[in-house]
Amino acid sequence: MAHTCIHWFRKGLRLHDNPALVAALRDCKEIYPVFVLDPYSPNNVNIGINRWKFLIGALKDLDCSLRKLNSRLFVVRGKPDEVFPKLFQKWKVTRLTYEYDTEPFSLRRDKEVGRLAEEHGVEIIYKVSHTLYNIDRIIEENNGKAPLTYNRLQTLVSSIGPPKRPIPAPTRDDMKDVKTLCSEKHEENYGISTLEKLYQDPESLTEELFPGGEQEALRRLDQHMARKEWVCGFEKPQTSPNSLSPSTTVLSPYMTFGCLSARTFWWRLTDVYQGKKHSQPPVSLHGQLLWREFFYTAGLGIPNFDKMEGNPVCTQVDWDSNFEYLAAWAEARTGFPFIDAIMTQLRQEGWIHHLARHAVACFLTRGDLWISWEEGQKVFEELLLDGDWSLNAGNWQWLSASTFFHQFFRVYSPIAFGKKTDKNGDYIKKYLPHLKKYPAQYIYEPWKAPRSVQEAAGCIVGKDYPRPIVEHEVISKKNIQRMKAAYAKRSPHSSEESPGKKEKGLKKHVIYLQLL
């Protein structure tokens, strides 16, 4: 039987290493590559303009690649459970393929679409390719529970073996007997949306530093893999949070959207490492990919993973509800230049270094403002290009010392931490230009500058730049005691598999992964 297939693109916005797409082409006479754009889904309502721009770029790139195979991308607006029954009937579909997704919302969505497909006599095939491993298999190997330590994850994946090798992208030969029927009104009916149609204002965009798409992802991968010495020596904690250009690969957005396959990245690294001395997990680039796997496993195996309440591994903390503090943090007006520069970069560019994420996350939660990590999670979800659900939730729990990491007495200073790698404050001057005339001795603490220095710099604290929202030296000590009290209330069983002393070698590497 020759099938009429829909391949449903969701995250895997690529042709390379796409086993579900390859499965769609087997015994296939017609294929319809579909992307369902549902602006009001829970996954999309909190997305900022940079992420929409990246997605549009990725879809345009995908459509361009499909055209080279004599096919096209069909962008359909609406809810999947409403649009698919119509498409099944319209195109007389007999098979639906897609990449497996482990997020709770996606699993519920896919279950409902699966039910509808069965009603319409449509066969479903899904394949694992967004992660290195089958996440369900990892949990199964761990007696049905998500591993709560990185070392445990390493043990489990070592027993499973290396990730599967990536498969090549389909070629025109693979498509020679397969048609995609397009009408003259394709652009009108199934074209890619614009920012304006998504109610976004293009005028608010700054320079696009990270264009979306598979071709850009592969170009960047090639560029980094050519730096063999850098790749072999890469240690995540040794990279700089406030360099003027990224000190890491910035491949994470491309992996979040599936423009780059994690398995392709893994095996390209393996090729570079071959026969050479190189860094090891958890700090190496292979280690970063395993951290991604760790949080994906936690996201699938731990109930209510993106919340404090109902999350069985999360410390229950009596966080404050202070909307003024939250807004000041999110809008880069805390009065601490290092924190405000990071949040400005995040809003403008959609990306910040993992140690910069450490600094602002600690500041918002246990360090200074005592605001729930769930509120920070929402802001990152909106603004980060790599705002991946599992990694975002997991890292906010880690950095607030709520889950995984329990050394709550280690607090990032919003002043001293940035000075380690940027004494002159060049990063601050780039993102907060109104402070650029401040001398280095005051750039991290402008409120300490004499009035004459402030006037000479053309920026008066309290008028042109806010005073510090809190007194860090005082509030951080108070908050350590509050965390100590929260820990004292925890169940004695809640830390049975905590990273504590078991995770030798990880103490120095509190890694905000999402990372790369």
From TrEMBL:
Q: Where is the composition biased (Basic and acidic residues)?
A: 493-503
UniProt-recorded Gene Ontology molecular function terms: deoxyribodipyrimidine photo-lyase activity; DNA binding; FAD binding
> Domain Photolyase/cryptochrome alpha/beta spans what residues?
3-132
Give the signal peptide range: none
One Pfam family per UniProt:
DNA_photolyase
- Give binding positions for FAD: 248-252, 288-295, 386-388
- The entry's protein name is Cryptochrome circadian regulator 5
Q: What is the lineage of its organism?
A: Eukaryota, Metazoa, Chordata, Craniata, Vertebrata
Primary gene name: cry5
